[in-house]
Amino acid sequence: MLDKAKMWTNQRNKELRDRAAKVIPGGMYGHQSTAILPDVYPQFFRRAEGTRLWDTDGNEYIDYMCAFGPNLLGYRHPSVEDAATTQQRLCDTATGPSEIMVELAERFVSMISHADWAMFCKNGTDATTMAMMCARAHTKKRKILAAKKAYHGAAPWCNPYVAGTVPEERAHMLYYEYNNPQSLEDAFRAAGDDVAGVFASAFRHDVFEDQELPTPEFAQSARDLCDRTGALLIVDDVRAGFRLARDCSWSTVGIQPDLSAWGKCIANGYPLSALLGSEKARAAAQKIFVTGSFWFQAIPMAAAIATLNQIQKTDYLERMEKTGAMLRSGLATQASSHGFSLRQTGPVQMPMILFDDDPDMRLGYGWVSEALTRGVYIHPWHNNFICAALTENDVKLTLEITDEAFAALKKKRATLGPVPQLAARFARLHDESLTAAR
Ligand SMILES: *Cc1c(COP(=O)(O)O)cnc(C)c1O
Questions:
Q1: Closest ligand 1 atom to 68 CA
Q2: How many domains are there within the chain?
Q3: Measured from the CB, is residue 239 less than 6 Å from ligand 1?
Q4: Is residue 335 domain-resident?
Q5: What pLDDT digit, counting tens, does each position of 294-344 carry?
Q6: Residue 148 located in a structural domain
Q7: What is the 3-state secondary structure (H, E, C) of the chain?
Q8: Residue 267 domain-assigned?
């Protein structure tokens, strides 16, 4: 543990899991279910501050998941909390939106090069679904192209699992290979003259896979194909937004989309997402009926303005790049000194950390488990996240712990078996029939 005097325990978490199993289906659902993580991973937490998390047993962790993205500046960042508290005294959900909604929309339009307007909602799925509707309203066409295995949310049209959905809900989805212009062109051809929109993730950040930044050729071909056919180009920046750039992530490859979907960190953990669009898509955005009881909450909007202030006025991004690079090179050196080989892919501030020669992930699961019980929370098959509160000292402390974790893994290597919970679920997560190219 970070506090060497304290022993890691998970008694309270176990008790809570047992209680949850009775009143919450499966004990937990969606991406928050730890059923597919190593057994030692805590399901419930009590407190979060800066880079640190405390679980219900009081174990402290340096957290490299950042709430799966929403934590950008550090949990409970003082200026964001101040803005939220000030707004809380005025109004949150009311009969109409607060005046700060206009200011927030102006801020996004001024910061994001392609954006001429903004609409706000709660979750990333709201924003991607609105983008889909907007593309269809704009083109009066039906087909939506998305990359195989790319995550765009949990609505029936994009859900990674089949349970509770019907094939008709994906009837107009076609899939292409990310970073492969030929495959995108083939998907356009297969769709005939019926393409409403093309979804592209900010970069390739699929679970269990090495990550890839978009190539300029791929991004350019997506732009050209959309321009040629009138389809709208949609960048899904829900996960990567503001972690790669202070603009839309595809600004890094010089391509402007027509629509971009945002969520996760735009209000540093407060519930807010957004659809941003260019002038071309404004009339369509005005036509579609999209809303929600809580979409106009003022507290998250105040938190977002405070977050955007930090994004514009501080070196938050450069700091994440620096600590992320430190972590990456430290881990690479450690791994090889203990006789392991890691594949660390994607931007350093959103690292995917996989082991070579680990087809059933027993090394990955073994290593993150050893790190976890010593106080470092790393995800074995999803990209991790660096937040701006992470200091060089935090990275040094992390590396001390991961070094011990590699040493412990090396000792146990011969005795490690296949990961049972993974074997059972692996097939479903890799259900390629869902996004098979047609
Ligand atoms: C998380 C995510 C979504 C969905 O966002 P929610 O807030 O979970 O609905 C969509 N796209 C990407 C790329 C994501 O990472």
A1: 1
A2: 2
A3: yes
A4: yes
A5: 999 999 999 999 999 999 999 999 999 999 999 999 999 999 999 999 999
A6: yes
A7: CCCCCCCCCCHHHHHHHHHHHHHCHHHCCHHHCCCCCCCCCCCCEEEEEECEEEECCCCEEEECCHHHCCCCCCECCHHHHHHHHHHHCCCCCCCCCCCHHHHHHHHHHHHCCCCCEEEEECCHHHHHHHHHHHHHHHHCCCEEEEECCCCCCCCCCCCCCCCCCCHHHHCCEEEECCCCHHHHHHHHHHHCCCEEEEEEECCECCCCCCCECCCHHHHHHHHHHHHHHCCEEEEECCCCCCCCCCCCHHHHHCCCCCEEEECHHHHCCCCCEEEEECHHHHHHHHHCCCCCCCCCCHHHHHHHHHHHHHHHHCCHHHHHHHHHHHHHHHHHHHHHHCCCCEEEECCCCCCEEEECCCCCCHHHHHHHHHHHCCCEECCCCCCCCCCCCCCHHHHHHHHHHHHHHHHHHHHHHHHCCCCHHHHHHHHHHCCCCCCCCC
A8: yes
